[in-house]
Amino acid sequence: KAGVTQTPRYLIKTRGQQVTLSCSPISGHRSVSWYQQTPGQGLQFLFEYFSETQRNKGNFPGRFSGRQFSNSRSEMNVSTLELGDSALYLCASSPEAPSSYNEQFFGPGTRLTVL
Amino acid sequence: GESVGLHLPTLSVQEGDNSIINCAYSNSASDYFIWYKQESGKGPQFIIDIRSNMDKRQGQRVTVLLNKTVKHLSLQIAATQPGDSAVYFCAENTGGSYIPTFGRGTSLIVHP
To answer: How far apart are CA B64 and CA B75, in angstroms?
Structure first.
């Protein structure tokens, strides 16, 4: 079974631009979560989607948004990019809504650099 | 590969030694904890988890210990191998709403 895939793997943007990242979960998984990883802040939860609905949201500004499609694929969007948005963005999927009973499987991430 | 974190605590061990990685968590209400391993250029990989009604759980070559009194979690890796070299994170979660909080991570370096 193929793992979680993320595209693109690397991306360079300039301040003020917007970006869309894509995540394809493991086949059959309905929950997709997004995380931001930086050297300074570590790994931080962005949001989680289940059956096309955002169920949980971390403490990030409204410039960060996402959506999930009927096939469970998910995209996240960052508008008006700032230098501090440079990070590794990770997507994780699980069969059902993640909880203490459902393991999450992470993709390799998208490395975003904002110049 | 990519660096997943700068200024991380680092633990250097010799192959065959036992490794102990520590994590202090922040929320006394957290009831579920996970250890992840992240190799360079890859996403985190689940290693082992533990619920707050337990104080020890064992897997293959790994043991997690939970001390709720001092809000401390540890990961013990037996007979450490070069392939164990990676950054290790703990994560805590509270209740049924899955919004995990991750530790900063520890870089484990295993010397052959």
So the answer is: 5
With a cut of 80, say whether residue A43 has pLDDT above it: yes
**Sign (positive or negative) of CA dihedral B7, A45, A76, A105:** positive
pLDDT digits (tens, 9 = 90+) for B22-40: 999 988 888 889 999 999 9
Q: Is B97 on the interface with A (CB under 8 A)?
A: yes
Candidates B98, B102, B107, partner chain A, best to mutate (most A CBs within 10 A): B98
* Cβ contacts of A67 within 8 Å, gap of 6 or more: A49, A52, A74, A75
Q: Do B98 and A108 touch (CB under 8 A)?
A: no
Which residues on adjacent β-strands are paired with residue A54?
Answer: A49
Taking CA–CA distances from A109, the nearest residue in chain B reads: B43
